[in-house]
Amino acid sequence: MSRNALITGASRGIGKEIALLLAKERCNVIVNYNNSKKEAEELVEFIKQNYGVEAYSFKADVSSEKEIDQLVDFAYSKFKNIDILINNAGICIDKEVADRTVSDFLKTFSLNLFGVFYLSKIIGKRMFESKFGKIVNISSNNSINGFYPTTIDYDASKSALNSLTKNLAVEFSPFVNVNAVAPGWIDTDMNKELLTEDIKEMESERILKKRIGSPRDVAEVVSFLVSNKADYVDGQVIVVDGGMF
Length: 245
Prior knowledge:
There is one protein chain. By secondary structure, this protein is α/β, with parallel strands linked by helices. It has a single domain, classed as NAD(P)-binding Rossmann-like Domain (Rossmann fold). The protein is about 45% helix and about 15% strand. It contains 7 helices and 7 strands, in the order E-H-E-H-E-H-E-H-E-H-E-H-H-E. Strands 3-2-1-4-5-6-7 form a 7-stranded parallel sheet, with helices on both faces. Helix 5 links the parallel strand 5 (about 135-140) and strand 6 (about 175-185). The radius of gyration is 17 Å and the shape is globular.
């Protein structure tokens, strides 16, 4: 039986790779995006042509409760149940601590934390009622180790996301598994400007695997967490950073 997955921020990077892998594994998918309409539509078309599952795209800013409500309405208009929720959408803006404002914090937290809470609360309740569900939040290894103060609000939001993950696991137990994946350096569009060749070489020396991660590295762990193989894994934050120190 096919399962139905909703993935936020899924038009590019880690979200896109998760959508592709879940579709390959026979999941129907809803690709949420905010700005990248062309990429989302192309991804949906590729999935339908290559994997023979249902796929849809939907624009929604998941820092907005109103737009989250619209996304949820759309999702349940297409599928009776949402079995898998991947909270991947996020924002990270580098800025010196001295230049950071409370408004910057609120903007980051609105997407990285508040939106995740609101969407998970709504869908998690429905999962609980149907007695099955898998929620995976995409965190960051910055939530555990403070590497760079220039991302102080991002780091704090992801630390809070880890706590949210554990609390939601308790709230929706025993029927819904809620876990988080905390990637390190991943070669995505979001990191394109930061990860110059010099930076890649320097940062790779701090990673036991001696390389920058790929979106696939993260997607494989997410795929495991939403599978039956991970049925006894709940309330965990799994670091996927190649052994960064």
